[in-house]
Write a structure and sequence with these properties.
The chain is mainly beta and 246 residues long. The protein has helices at residues 2-14, 90-93, and strands spanning 21-39, 48-63, 70-79, 84-87, 102-105, 111-126, 131-146, 151-158, 161-169, 172-186, 191-200, 207-215, 221-243.
């Protein structure tokens, strides 16, 4: 909570500095999570980025320096992550085999993730300032919160698999660095169209999926997959120059 108060204080303070420019940006797009393997046979259980979660991101950038291509930014976005389990051979996953692969997904409503970011933005101006390239480095203060019961489980059969599935949240805090590259096209005096890509590197798992399974009544095996916030963002949005840059 102290960190959140500090972020809000810095954000509000920026509004009152002598400025060379201010910019408010709203983006909508997709977060592609990396689902990582903690336990499981490497030939069967594999990393996956097939979970796509649409969400919004808001950024405020302040340009307080004489060199007005360097900005200080604050950002916020929230997502409801997934943690999926994918087990099977390559032939099964590509649906060309005789049996189905085992694919199970954790509840997207079990965990809520809030990210409050502070960072720097570096602008490169092209075409008489109508086209701008943005390079950003952001440190996100990430708060993951459990929104439902601690865990749930079910069992079933799919193809050759008999399975017992569990999913559980791991609420907490971590700092997630983010690297971002963006293209900004001026479509009116103070309105810009933005295309943005970001990579986020997480370290602390906040959602787990675990499955115990048998294949054709063979010896029982286990696999545990998790989501730690490592992801790609691909987003499109609009930005407004609150104070137009020179």
């Amino acid at each position: 909570m102290k960190m959140l108060k500090l972020i809000i204080t810095l954000f509000v303070s920026l509004l009152f500095f002598t400025t060379k420019g201010q910019e408010l940006e709203v983006l909508h797009g997709m977060e592609m999570f990396y689902i990582k393997v903690e336990e499981g046979h490497s030939e069967e259980a594999r990393n996956s980025i097939n979970n796509h979660n649409n969400h919004w991101k808001v950024r405020y950038t302040h340009y307080p320096f004489i060199l007005n291509n360097i900005g200080v930014l604050a950002s916020y976005h929230t997502v409801s992550p997934l943690a999926s389990v994918l087990i099977g051979t390559d032939a099964e996953v590509s649906l060309s085999g005789k049996e189905e692969a085992l694919f199970l997904s954790g509840s997207p409503g079990k965990t809520k993730v809030h990210r409050f970011g502070i960072g720097l933005n570096f602008k490169t101006k092209l075409l008489n300032n109508r086209l701008l390239l943005n390079s950003r480095f952001v440190v996100n203060n990430e708060f993951s919160m459990q929104t439902k019961d601690p865990a749930y489980h079910f069992m079933g059969k799919i193809g050759a698999y008999d399975y017992w599935y569990y999913s559980y949240s791991n609420p907490g805090f971590q700092m997630v660095p983010e690297l971002s590259l963006g293209v900004q096209l001026k479509i009116y005096k103070w309105i810009n169209l933005n295309l943005d890509y970001s990579y986020l590197q997480g370290f602390r798992p906040f959602l787990y999926s675990k499955v115990d399974y048998k294949i054709d009544n063979s010896e029982k095996a286990s696999a545990t997959f998790y989501n730690d916030g490592t992801a790609h963002h691909i987003m499109l949005g609009i930005s407004i120059d609150l104070i137009e840059r020179e």
